[in-house]
Design goal:
The protein is an alpha+beta fold and about 140 residues long. The protein has one domain: Ribosomal protein L22/L17 (Ribosomal Protein L22, Chain A). It is built from four helices and five strands, in the order H-E-H-H-H-E-E-E-E. The strands form two sheets. The chain has a three-stranded antiparallel beta sheet with strand order 1-5-2. Helix 3 runs antiparallel to helix 4. The longest helix is centred in the middle third of the chain and has 20 residues. The N and C termini lie far apart (about 40 Å). The relative contact order is 0.22.
């Protein structure tokens, strides 16, 4: 590894130590459906976001709720204390496309239709109110 690449990798590792996040990879739903759920909670306080996700009728909301609980636990682990009400916020959420499984479905007159079974990766960041620049 080159010197400049190594220095930038070290900076990235140091920056990750001060961030509180959780990742969910290879979720077997399309990124578009997952983004609908994630857009509902972006920028929200975490307890309110958990309530929104719990009562959402989308299938992806259960996975995002579990991911949010994991991010909260990561914050509590790094800060060595419990999160109080109104303290933590969902700062950033990314939904990226994952691997796509390609399948063929029989079609009329000897043809085959292509089916793409999409997956996605979700990264969710939480942070406290005093370091959150929105509030």
């Amino acid at each position: 590894m080159g010197a400049r690449k190594k220095i930038s990798a070290e900076k990235r590792k140091e920056a990750l130590k001060t961030m509180y996040f959780a990742k969910l990879q290879n979720v077997p739903t399309s990124p578009r459906k997952m983004r609908l759920v994630v857009d509902m909670i972006r920028g929200m306080e975490v307890n309110r976001a958990l309530g929104v996700l719990k009562f959402s009728s989308k299938e992806a909301s259960a996975r995002v709720e579990k991911l949010l609980r994991s991010a909260i636990a990561n914050w509590e682990q790094k800060n060595e204390r419990k999160a109080e009400d109104g303290e933590l916020f969902v700062t950033k959420v990314y939904v990226d496309g994952g691997a796509t499984l390609k399948r063929m479905r029989p079609a009329p007159q000897g043809r085959g239709y292509r089916i793409r079974k999409r997956s996605n990766h979700v990264t969710l960041f939480v942070d406290s109110k005093n370091t959150n620049d929105k509030n």
